[in-house]
Amino acid sequence: DAGVIQSPRHEVTEMGQEVTLRCKPISGHNSLFWYRQTMMRGLELLIYFNNNVPIDDSGMPEDRFSAKMPNASFSTLKIQPSEPRDSAVYFCASNLGQGAGQPQHFGDGTRLSIL
Amino acid sequence: AQTVTQSQPEMSVQEAETVTLSCTYDTSESDYYLFWYKQPPSRQMILVIRQEAYKQQNATENRFSVNFQKAAKSFSLKISDSQLGDAAMYFCALLMYSGGGADGLTFGKGTHLIIQP
What we know:
The complex is a heterodimer of chains A (115) and B (117). Chain A is mainly β. In chain A, 0% of the residues lie in helices and 54% in strands. Chain B is mostly beta strands. In chain B, 0% of the residues lie in helices and 52% in strands. Chain B has strands at residues 3-5, 10-14, 19-21, 24-26, 32-39, 46-52, 60-61, 64-69, 74-79, 88-96, 105-107, 111-116. In chain B, the strands form three sheets. In chain B, strands 2, 5, 6, 10, 11 and 12 form a six-stranded mixed sheet that branches. A four-stranded antiparallel sheet of chain B has the order 3-9-8-7, with no helix packed on it. Chains A and B meet through strand 4, strand 5, strand 9 and strand 10 of A and strand 5, strand 6 and strand 11 of B.
């Protein structure tokens, strides 16, 4: 079975540019999560969706960050305008959602470098 | 708010030996779940083991087992017969039971496990 698919795997861009990260969750999974990993702050939850609806975006650092889930098989995380401090690995994860304590399955992450 | 603390930034163990990674957490809730994830240099996040807080029995998965002490809010991971492929960052994570569906994980800062051949 295909796992969570993220693209691109690496992204290098200049400060001020718009960055779009993409995620395809595992088919049949109802919940989708975006995390950010940095050396200083570790792994942080940015936002998550249940049945395509954003539930908690309190982890989104600034208005420059936005996330959408237009359908059950696709989500985007957008940064506009990007800044060097946004450099990090961004992970997408999904799980069944229904039923408590379902483990989250992670994609391979996108390493983002803002110059 | 909940927190997860991993007090060992790095651990080293000889191949075939046993090592224990520590994790403590803080939450005011009684229903929650605990996980250990492994992150090798490839940066994949791989689920190692899962524990339900309402279960007293410690979870085991082959060479991996946990020591779950709910009163002490402690959740350590024991790796038996360590193998070179076990070398990775290990993250302890807490998931609250939201009742209405999924919720996000709270992670510790991780422990870097080195396996000495």
